[in-house]
């Protein structure tokens, strides 16, 4: 059946400004993300640097803004020096994090150059698993110090005259996780993170530092980890990370579709902890939340089936690891998670969809073959291209759905942004059965409207090298007296853009427009 829903937008209540960095991504030396992903020198579209042209074009189209690199779990055993200097001298190493062999054909220089060509700001992680402050400081000096020291001159000899000027640095990765190389208690990690942060700031006071929060909301140490780590570092860091992956419990797509309710709670709890610690320690410096790994990921399959096989196999180069094939349903969940991130723009300073190519990624490709967009590509691209300016948190009047995991949730989730005279509205329909005719008020003219749903209503539809079955399609919007009405099919994502009448802009609060 078709139901009705109303999204109420109060333009006078436009709030926080969305940081473009919320639309970040993540490239790890893992599986086929780098090798056979962005980098494949023998591919017909590869340029002189060995990076694939077809993948590069899809990355550009995605509209991501910042890229976290080079891990992930990988970074906790990584020696950055292995990846610089003449390729023929670079060592092959075991990567214990992913039971693979790392050739080091791609390192800081190649990756930074590539990131520049696709318009991505580089966000670099340092190894606090097997290494510590000294090696992190060396990497920072190598990357950001202009010249006249052994490390900065080594960079220049290696082909980069000007500093890389990397601004955002992650102090290790998921150090709360027993699976992490160099896993630590909160106190152990807090201490080493503080020492590293202090030393790095001595070298380059302009950097922004991200301290590692919990690996997920269900970690037994969640909460105490954040409080302890921030007690050590709150006066030294700019962001604390949140990692959040969601999957469908067998037979419970309704709860899966409500995953953003879980993310909302996770973000609110971390924000509360930040406030408590800052108040307790009298910290004036703001601390943002860096959701620097988030996505849909079938982790149960990875942990129970794929990982045991990978870790008892050999040490292959670029094995196929967690190449999840996403469905229309997954894309709608990704859309709802984006709505949660945008809605928390007052607290979320950065976020990185994990990962970019092949590994739980919006872009897939085959060696010597095609590159294609997974369904999850599209809501991300919509948000990255159109969520600009200030956030409007709407009132939602819609059917209430019962879920096993999150209780009662509205069938419609939505958020809007306003930038000069442009309003962008993002919405999902979580209902598995019912279309929704959705109305919202925004005095002005609709300039584009599209929805994304499964082909012929099949939420399990996927895309592949030969067929892009899940892609946005234009949808009709009925507009009358500034009220716009469109129909969202069951399990769908929508993006509508409106050019506002100048009279409507008078009611927008503040001076940011
Ligand atoms: O993104 C895949 C892995 O997930 C990352 O390496 C790790 O940080 C997280 O557990």
Automatic annotation (TrEMBL):
Keywords: Carbohydrate metabolism, Glycosidase, Hydrolase. One of its GO terms (biological process) is L-arabinose metabolic process. Gene3D superfamilies: Glycosidases, Golgi alpha-mannosidase II. It holds the Pfam family Alpha-L-AF_C. The keyword Hydrolase applies. InterPro entries: Alpha-L-AF_C, ASD1_cat, GH, Glyco_hydro_b. It catalyses: Hydrolysis of terminal non-reducing alpha-L-arabinofuranoside residues in alpha-L-arabinosides. Belongs to the glycosyl hydrolase 51 family. This is non-reducing end alpha-L-arabinofuranosidase. It comes from Microbacterium schleiferi.
């Amino acid at each position: 059946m078709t139901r009705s829903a109303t999204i109420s937008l109060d333009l006078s209540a436009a709030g926080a400004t969305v940081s473009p960095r919320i639309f970040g991504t993540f490239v790890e030396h893992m599986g086929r993300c780098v090798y056979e992903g962005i980098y494949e020198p023998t591919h017909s579209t590869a340029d002189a640097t060995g990076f694939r042209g077809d993948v590069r074009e899809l990355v550009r189209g995605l509209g991501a803004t910042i890229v976290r690199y080079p891990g992930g779990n990988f970074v906790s055993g990584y020696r950055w020096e292995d990846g610089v200097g003449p390729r023929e001298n670079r060592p092959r190493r075991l990567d214990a994090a992913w039971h693979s062999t790392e050739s080091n054909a791609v390192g800081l220089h190649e990756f930074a150059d590539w990131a520049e060509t696709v318009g991505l700001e580089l966000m670099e992680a340092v190894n606090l698993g097997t290494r510590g402050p000294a090696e992190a400081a060396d990497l920072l000096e190598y990357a950001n110090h202009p010249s006249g020291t052994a490390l900065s001159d080594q960079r220049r000899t290696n082909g980069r005259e000007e500093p890389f000027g990397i601004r955002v640095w992650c102090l290790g990765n998921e150090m709360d996780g027993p699976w992490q190389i160099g896993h630590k208690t909160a106190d152990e990690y807090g201490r080493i993170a503080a020492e590293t942060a202090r030393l790095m700031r001595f070298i380059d006071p302009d950097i922004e530092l991200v301290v590692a929060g919990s690996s997920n909301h269900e970690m037994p140490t969640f909460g105490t980890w954040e409080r302890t780590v921030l007690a050590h570092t709150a006066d030294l860091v700019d962001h604390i990370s949140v990692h959040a992956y969601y999957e469908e419990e067998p037979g419970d797509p309704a709860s899966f579709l409500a995953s953003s309710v879980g993310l909302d709670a996770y973000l609110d709890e971390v924000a509360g902890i930040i406030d408590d610690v800052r108040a307790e320690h009298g910290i004036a410096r703001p601390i943002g939340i860096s959701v620097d790994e988030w996505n849909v990921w079938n982790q149960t399959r990875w942990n129970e089936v794929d990982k045991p096989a990978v870790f008892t196999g050999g040490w292959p180069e670029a094995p196929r690891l967690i190449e999840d094939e996403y469905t229309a349903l997954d894309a709608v969940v990704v859309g709802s998670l984006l709505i949660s991130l945008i809605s928390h723009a007052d607290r979320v300073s950065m976020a990185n969809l994990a990962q970019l190519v092949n590994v739980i990624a919006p872009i897939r490709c085959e060696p010597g073959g095609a590159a294609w967009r997974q369904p999850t590509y599209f809501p991300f691209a919509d948000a990255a291209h159109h969520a600009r300016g200030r956030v409007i948190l709407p009132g939602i009047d819609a059917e209430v759905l019962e879920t096993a995991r999150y209780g009662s949730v509205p069938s419609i989730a939505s958020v809007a942004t306003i930038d000069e005279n442009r309003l962008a509205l993002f919405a999902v329909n979580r209902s598995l059965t019912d279309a929704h005719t959705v109305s919202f008020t925004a005095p002005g003219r609709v300039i584009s409207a599209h929805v994304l749903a499964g082909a012929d209503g099949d939420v399990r539809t996927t895309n592949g090298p030969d067929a892009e079955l899940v892609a946005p399609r234009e949808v009709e919007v009925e507009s009358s007296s500034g009220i716009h009405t469109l129909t969202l099919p069951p399990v769908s994502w929508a993006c509508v853009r409106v050019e506002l009448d100048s009279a409507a802009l008078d009611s927008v609060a503040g001076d940011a427009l």
